[in-house]
Amino acid sequence: KVKAAVFASGTGSNFQALLETDNLQCEIALLVCDNPHAAVIDKASAYKIPVFAFNPKSFSSKAAFEERIVERLQKAGISWIFLAGYMRLVGPTLLEAFNNKIINIHPSLLPEFPGKDAIGQAYHSGVRETGVTIHYVDEGMDTGPIIAQESIEVLNEDTERSLKEKIQQVEHQLYPKVINQLLQQSEGLI
Ligand code: GAR
């Protein structure tokens, strides 16, 4: 199986959903986390997944910590990176080392509501429809080429919390499905 790393900063429900997908076509071989106190690290420990946690403030630049990440990824034989709530822009060091192999999931129908708190932004704007987007990562904020989207209706009775629950349920199904499709396509190219 090809090896993948998940990058996450927070809770890790998407990370957990990937780990709990029986037929995932890759091995999640590493968690990369930019917050040594994030809850996702406990999830990795529970599933015995190796962790590379770092504090960006202890490096002189983004290039400096991304070089360390690339070293660690190469040592672990990682060929794909799946961002799952990694709340940081990916820089040229990682993008060049993993060209077209970095994927992100975002809780809105991009290009609507990029950036932080996409669910809150959508809820408070009053849109009747929002959703989930999976896309290739480039240097922008939630801007790379879109791979898949699934829309979700915002009902009158929805609260911000119920909307978040619905979106996360879709995320947990859609991310493994799209990852498997990508892995199959890239195998076909070899
Ligand atoms: C997810 O909803 C993900 O789509 C979002 O962060 C959440 C992380 O939740 N990502 C972004 O907003 C990226 N711009 P989780 O830690 O429970 O997986």
Topology:
Layout: E1 2-8, H1 13-19, E2 26-33, H2 39-46, E3 51-53, H3 62-75, E4 78-83, H4 92-97, E5 102-106, H5 118-125, E6 129-136, E7 146-153, H6 160-189
Parallel strand pairs: 1-2, 1-4, 2-3, 4-5
Antiparallel strand pairs: 5-6, 6-7
Bound molecules: glycinamide ribonucleotide (GAR).
Describe this structure in a few short sentences.
38% of the residues lie in helices and 24% in strands. With 190 residues, it is of the alpha/beta class.
> Mean of residue pLDDT?
97
- Number of helical regions: 6
Shape: globular
Distance between the termini: 14 Å
| Spatial extent as radius of gyration | 16 Å
Number of E-type strands: 7
Major sheet description? 7 strands, mixed
The secondary-structure class comes to: alpha/beta
Small-molecule binders here are: glycinamide ribonucleotide
Which regions contain 5 or more consecutive residues with pLDDT less than 50?
none
What portion of the residues fall into strands of 2 or more residues? Answer: 15-25%
What topology, given as strand order, has the largest sheet? 3-2-1-4-5-6-7
* Share of residues in helices: 25-40%
Question: What is the chains' assembly state?
Answer: single chain
Order of helices and strands: EHEHEHEHEHEEH
Relevant terms:
binds glycinamide ribonucleotide; 190 residues; 38% helix; 7 strands; alpha/beta; single chain; seven-stranded mixed β-sheet; 6 helices
